[in-house]
Design brief:
By secondary structure, the chain is of the alpha/beta class. It contains 10 helices and 8 strands. It has an 8-stranded parallel beta barrel with strand order 1-2-3-4-5-6-7-8, surrounded by 5 helices. The protein is globular. The N and C termini lie close together (about 5 Å).
């Protein structure tokens, strides 16, 4: 594997004592893979800020670079300034900047509407202190009116100061390469790292995909449906599909892979081992 490629993992802050222990067990296993970094998601409107930082610091204690997400929707300049100051004080040098979703029941978006405004704010407040990742959508953001509008939004985030991008997960590699080609044609040169979602549950995958707009190709969906409650067959099929996807992406020159672990170690570990990362 190229030494320039980055292989990274994503986690979410646990919300119960049982979930804390589950994540710690997964973390102990996954840090042995020596990922380039581990990102930690951020609650809408700052609702999980403390959990994000605490989880990030646990990863850093294990010797892994911790990369907290920063979400701007529902937040204020003052609250986000506080978040960034806290991260700077803890020596964090890398963040993922996202628009995020409004907290449940909230009617106002706060002082920021789009992720490019957040990226610009991070640069205004902290200069070049942070390496800033942003999101990309090979199958287009579900709220984008057109592919052209989606690409324009992505280019605005890059223009505001993003260093690299991580995509929403996908199972159609052509969608990723088409997006990369379109971004390059539009003058975007930053690395665009594929986001990878291991398949552990047919119902869970369908639920996530319906919510975020990621397409499950018909052949994959039908195959998963055919297994019914046969968890072992779903797992085996999912491992084959995702490993093949990753191998193909790397063979064509993808700059790395970012795995959405869902705080579970086994699937991601197996895929990394199969790929020889």
């Amino acid at each position: 594997m190229s030494v320039n490629r980055l292989f990274s993992l994503e986690f979410f802050p646990p919300r119960t004592p049982q979930a804390v222990e589950k994540l710690r067990a997964a973390r102990r296993q996954l840090v042995q893979l020596k990922p380039a970094f581990c990102s930690v998601t951020f609650g809408a409107g700052g609702s999980n800020r403390e959990g994000t930082l605490a989880t990030a610091l646990e990863f850093r204690a294990d010797g892994v670079e911790a990369v907290p997400h920063v979400s701007c929707i529902g937040g204020t300049r003052e609250s986000l300034r506080g978040v960034l100051t806290q991260y700077v004080e803890h020596g964090i040098r890398h963040v993922v900047a996202l628009r995020g979703d409004l907290p449940s029941g909230a009617g106002e978006s706060g002082e920021f509407r789009y992720a490019n405004e957040l990226v610009a704010f991070i640069r205004e407040e902290t200069g070049d202190h942070f390496h800033v990742d942003v999101a990309a959508y090979p199958e287009y953001h579900p709220q984008a009116k057109s592919p052209q509008e989606d690409l324009a939004a992505f280019k605005r985030k890059v223009g505001a100061g993003a260093n690299s991008a991580i995509t929403q997960y996908f199972y159609n590699a052509d969608a990723y390469w088409h997006f990369v080609d379109a971004a390059r044609a539009a003058g975007v040169e930053i690395p665009i790292v594929p986001g990878i979602m291991p398949i552990g549950s047919a119902s869970g995958l369908a639920r996530f995909s319906d919510a975020c707009g990621a397409e499950i190709p018909r052949w994959i969906r039908r195959k998963l449906e055919s297994y019914g409650d046969d968890a072992a067959s779903i797992r085996a099929f999912g491992l084959d599909v995702v490993t093949d996807l990753c191998a193909g992406l790397l063979a064509r020159g993808a700059p790395g892979l970012h795995f959405y672990t869902l705080n579970v170690a086994s699937l991601t570990t197996t895929i990394w081992q199969r790929l020889g990362i």
